[in-house]
Amino acid sequence: MGPDTGSGMFIGRYRIGKTMHWSKQLIPTLREVPQEAEIPSHQLMLRAGLIRKLSGGLYTFLPLGLRSLRKVERIVREEMDRAGALEILMPALQPREIWEKTGRYEVLQHVMFEMLDRQNRSMVLGPTHEEVVTSLAAGEISSYKQVPRNFYQIQTKFRDEIRPRFGLMRAKEFIMKDAYSFDMTWEDADRSYQAMYDAYVRIFERCGLRTKIVEADTGAMGGSASHEFMVLADAGEDGLVECGSCTYAANLERAEARIVPPAEEADDQAPEEVATPGAATIEQVSSFLKADPARFIKTLIYKAADKPLAVLVPGDRDVNEIKLAKVAGDAPELADDALVETVTGAPVGFAGPVGLKNCRIIADERLRGAVGRITGANRADTHLRHVSMERDVPGAEYADLVFPREGDACPRCGDGVLHEKRGIEVGHVFKLGTKYSESLKAAALDDQGKLHPLVMGCYGIGVTRTLQAVIEQSHDKNGIIWPMAIAPYSVEVMAVNVGHEESVRIAETIAAALEDAGVDVLVDDRDERPGVKFKDADLLGVPLRVSVGERSLAAGGVELKNRADGEQAVVPVEEAVGAILERVRSLM
Amino acid sequence: MGPDTGSGMFIGRYRIGKTMHWSKQLIPTLREVPQEAEIPSHQLMLRAGLIRKLSGGLYTFLPLGLRSLRKVERIVREEMDRAGALEILMPALQPREIWEKTGRYEVLQHVMFEMLDRQNRSMVLGPTHEEVVTSLAAGEISSYKQVPRNFYQIQTKFRDEIRPRFGLMRAKEFIMKDAYSFDMTWEDADRSYQAMYDAYVRIFERCGLRTKIVEADTGAMGGSASHEFMVLADAGEDGLVECGSCTYAANLERAEARIVPPAEEADDQAPEEVATPGAATIEQVSSFLKADPARFIKTLIYKAADKPLAVLVPGDRDVNEIKLAKVAGDAPELADDALVETVTGAPVGFAGPVGLKNCRIIADERLRGAVGRITGANRADTHLRHVSMERDVPGAEYADLVFPREGDACPRCGDGVLHEKRGIEVGHVFKLGTKYSESLKAAALDDQGKLHPLVMGCYGIGVTRTLQAVIEQSHDKNGIIWPMAIAPYSVEVMAVNVGHEESVRIAETIAAALEDAGVDVLVDDRDERPGVKFKDADLLGVPLRVSVGERSLAAGGVELKNRADGEQAVVPVEEAVGAILERVRSLM
Fold first, then answer.
1. Which residues of A touch B45 (CB under 8 A)?
2. What is the CA radius of gyration of chain A?
3. pLDDT tens for each residue of B302-343
4. All domains in chain A, ordered by first residue
5. Which of A4, B476, B548, B577 is the most buried (most CB within 10 A)?
């Protein structure tokens, strides 16, 4: 373990441990696609021997998976340190009472593992740490001289997922980087937010990830604004829209669209009942009446603050309950059948706004001025047509209530059109404001001696999820294609035939020289058929493969192959180390 | 973040992060000794701002505590890697069923946090990982070609301690390094054990800890042999004995002593009853009869395998139930009063071996050939004297049943005398054998195609406990005295008076040069009285303090002070960096 040599300086910073021979490692590659894995990244993590399942949503990191994970963590740590954040480490186990103080126990209890300790105290496993860190700040920060401060940790989180799946994407136990900023003023907090936003851009770039930054809802976290860092992927669990013309992008829950008034054909006929026997869904009625679902006024009865609420949206749109909650002023829940019948006087499936009594009505903006529409008649097996909103539903309030979709107009630039995408959320930054500092009494004196609650932000990166997202974004049919920065090894060296002494000697000499230069090297020293070794190399996805064999030596040296573009070259033995180092540097 | 300069190479390997100014860090030092802390290391961790309590047994690592922790982890990792162990990371959350397979759920359930998940499965938080790692090995290792393998992790463990205390010494959540070796044969397993033993010696040395290696009982872990690495300290929760002459040392539970036959005075009188009204304890009777407690035969009634068992030990000794269990062939429990009365025919306090019927009798070796002893008469308020073991208790079996104590003869060298000490267990290595591999079916084919259960060892280091043990062993009345290798910073630089521009400029220049050379530097840039800054420096215990002030400049330069020995020197400004680097290297 002597000092690094000069040439390895830059590379050596990225190294983990020492050169490893395959025969002494644990790299249990699999030929078959494991049954348990649905998406490519999950399949590849298992097939390349990066992780193994212990039970649903719980995985062991094998050596190669852990090496890449540590490299992601190091990038995160370097960028957080560079942004001035201070690393701490908070307990996973937490008394339930601190969650009750902020009112979040109720909101999050369904995803928190909870248990009694031997002192009969209720303990939970933290899915996030606002409560703990704000309690810490309340104890340690008391003056404007002590802020801004940003505390982060890279730590294991727990979530009692109802349906853990996709490997590390949605696991019961996972590693997060979570950071929490504390400032005296909202302006300072905005600066802290921006610093984290910028750090996140660098982190994901350095991990080799292409991310889309989208406006997002603040959800259970609370606060005034937030952005998500999304990796676009068909397997993503989050929907988002992005504008084809400008930079607008938003999580589907948060996304708006420019509302284009419906192109209505004049229809001043009075509402008319039409029998629709047995047809209760929009699909059934539209097929029965041969009318476009978009011509329907879908009427949903909710319960909000113990009162009924009728929600109207175009027949081909879905209610975004997050938007609805903001308008309704409470978290509305769909009414049960009994309430629907009480409110409408009809069985479920035939609700409509016309003549509805004692019930607040909120309609989607897209229905403003709509005429000639079809809706339920509040009578069994009956619908109404020729309904005009203005004339027939005079008491309706209007708001944006639906999810935008492919083809909607961009709310920002006006001429762009929105496209729907799926994404994997790898990072999320929130402006929290004073929600937590007020309930946990984290306040500081300003330079006038006046006490203010600290203004907070919080910032998360799913570290284990990021690792898998890289694979989801960077693989081909043969295996993983690691970005150099987080590859478990930077170079894989093999003697094609370990029975050929000269090949083995050259391979080992090259590996030792690379090691001296600070490069992470894996030596495939297995006595296996060349086909098996080459297939495994592609599966592991180490960025640079160096193979030495009778054939390459006859062709003039050793063979270098880039995993990403498949580029191959034979390089003379004596030039090999220099050529490899140059490639490693260029890919770093 | 340019490459390191040549001079910093060696030192740079040990660096964490960048130079930090006190005013931007979180170092909440405390003047007062916190009420919650009983022992020096716990008090100092709180006072120096290394940790803060969240609730009983749960602590947050603040930046300085985490920096030292990471340095301990790095030493552990380097030595484990050097010994050929492979790092993995297993889940903390585990299905209870794997614990039931090995029969350990029953043994350890009282210390395991347990909860139901949303699928209604019983989950536990792992206090150790034999079950998980052996399941992993069962799936991945199938041939002698794949062993030896040793898997380790540095990971968070949970224990539902009934009485968490002493800060990180006995916490509910803590970090362990646990390693597990798998071999084909017992001989190979011995080699794996020795490699870990040797690695542990290096690890604790590098952390600056003086440890005592003692033979220990295998306890709930099972297996054939084990050694503990103990840090001697009055606050230690483990008792141990060590020989004053040879290297023998053992945990009190495991320790033996050479049994010196009692120097008996001849006494051939027949047993004689003596009234001891109301005196039921050895203390009471010995005071009543004016006899040395050592002359008593203490008789304890146990229940083992549902049968009564009388256990006889000298009146001044305590039964070691671990030793007793080995002889009794079951885990004996003290009998309840009813059983004592049934067996002895007398109330509790008057049991004796003479005439005891239908009851197995096991006596401590130290009673072999004893004559003229006093014991209970199996009748209320009555004792017997002139008891001879051979004559009056002919059916007794003999074994070593008691804890050794100060002054006992060494069992190994014969002429040495044992001394009792208290210790903090920081490491423990076990020869496990095939207990886990058999119950979890981890087996491999040998080169003859025959299947053998893998032979295991397991090896733990309490990483967070080690950190605190260093402080317990290395502090003075003013604060911590960090060994260079795990100090949060290697050097603390301060301008004594931040109002004096020249001092500040020199301090910053020196700090920057040290930083360039790869040294971890803390700059105390606070506008505080010199007394406060010097006191805090001693409290933090950074190994080397560099102070610049009008007085030092007048005396010829900057002042260097070693925290450990208090040695001070004034060095010319232009020679300061070189002198500091030399000292840092010599202390590393």
1. none
2. 30
3. 998 889 999 999 999 999 998 999 898 878 899 999 999 999
4. 6-50+488-587 (3.40.50.800), 54-256+419-471 (3.30.930.10), 272-399 (3.90.960.10)
5. B548
